[in-house]
Amino acid sequence: MNLQRMSCHDFQCGLIVTDLVERRIVFSNHYIESLLGVSNITDPLTRIDQLLSRASTIIIESYVMPILIHEGHCEEVQVTIQNAKGDKVPALLNARVDSAEPIRVYWTITSAVQRDQLYQELVNLRNQLEQKAERLEQLSQTDELTGLLNRREFVVRANRCIKVSERSKRQLSLLMFDIDHFKKVNDTYGHDVGDYVLNSLGLLLKANCRETDHVARMGGEEFAILMPDTTVDAALIFANRLLELVCQIKIENTVLTMSAGIASGYDREFDVLFKAADIALYQAKASGRNKAVIES
Amino acid sequence: MNEAEAIKRNNIKRLGKGEHTLVLAHGFGCSQSMWRFLIPYLSDRYQILLFDYVGSGASDFTFFSKARYSDLEGYADDIVEFCEALSLKDVSFIGHSVSGIIGLLAAQKIPDRISNMVMVCPSPCFLNFPPNYFGGFELSDLEELVNLMDKNYIGWANHLSPLVMGQDADPALVNELTHSFCSTDPVMAKVFAKATFFSDYRDRLSENTHPTLLLQSQNDSLASVSIGEYMRLAMPQSELRVIDAKGHCLHMTHPEEVSKEIDSFLAKRVS
Q1: CATH architecture of B3-125+200-267
Q2: Which partner from A61, A194, A241, B23 sits 20 to 30 angstroms from B222, CA to CA?
Q3: Do A22 and B163 touch (CB under 8 A)?
Q4: B220 catalytic residue (yes or no)
């Protein structure tokens, strides 16, 4: 082997030596020059940053420099090399600090075109998966017809709220309600009108509930609202307001009405609260409908 | 938020001795460990409070919310909340890079808890708005940065964390990072990058009511001297000192000079 024939210019990767603070180039090999399409970049005033894109400078200042100063070496950082013509090439940086005076940093730079493509594919795939997961999560929580929460998600959130109210000892209220004579609407006007009524009620609830309330269609013509930090009296006032508002939904000459049951507390399990509100709702129905009844 | 919760959330560490407290705030990129070179120059005279913003270092990542941390106000709220939880009063706030502006926002919310500020290599806006303002970067540069953030895995353990970071994710899993010097979660770091580099807080500078020392280096590729001059002119109660040094991490490369500037600034203001 002829050692004299070997030189660092033969490596298939860029080699650069700079100082630490300003990163001025004191040495570079031919590979760098061919990568950049220039000759002789070892002008003593050239900084390594001048070979990189502006975005790469942020990565260098925010990550590479602190790591180099702190740990003395830094591996596998992807940056963008930018030649004099402005063409950009993805590249991989490694660096090591030699702390003997004068302090030098030894950099290796390799092209990372293919790695960049692979990463881009991974990033795209991850974004797609994230969007899909978000969409699926939304679908699994939402009632399709009204856009309100479905029963399952409502129960999950109600349990969470109950835990919070247990800790804070602040009352929460559960409002259950049911459209009066909904079967007649379906039988008289058809299911599409029935769907329209459900959908309109969903919009009305969304517009009138607080952001912190949880509103769900529990199934059929039955709805529920869980109101954190709400006393039974406040819940009754709100329920009566909803009873008034719901009259705005008209089908030909029939005015829509509904009945409501209310249960409150801060230390009751969901099933208990639900049952109490349901019994109150039944009482509202039994005593003439179009009214709200508080659990007895 | 009580004291214990704040300490855990922001990984608060207290050290040093003295009457006066310095709150040291790291910038975008790493964590409170950035301050380790400066601390030996200060800890014999000052009490020092170190912390990590939520999403950086060893903060509690279960507190991360994209909505809250998508602008710098969210990071300022971290400071406001722990200053209140720890009943801090009359502290000096020392912020590196973007933390200068975060400190400004926090100081406006709690003017009695923060009495003055030192901003090391700050910038109110990294974007160019020719012909009057040159933050140093074009929008396309910053879009490239966001793309590069996606492809750099510096000390990152959770490469696919967005997929597992649902609302009900196990805190142990979410917090499981390598905790190497610069460990950062990719999603949170990207949110911080966007909040930092796409923001423009120039119009807030004139609202400053706190004595402020602006420290700059002669040659900083993220914050040029002209940005320091712009800030001094725009900010009431500010003074600019250009340190005879280069680079963006003055507190790491020139801790002695930085500590001297802090001392002489505070000597005039702290009894």
Answers
A1: 3-Layer(aba) Sandwich (3.40)
A2: B23
A3: no
A4: yes
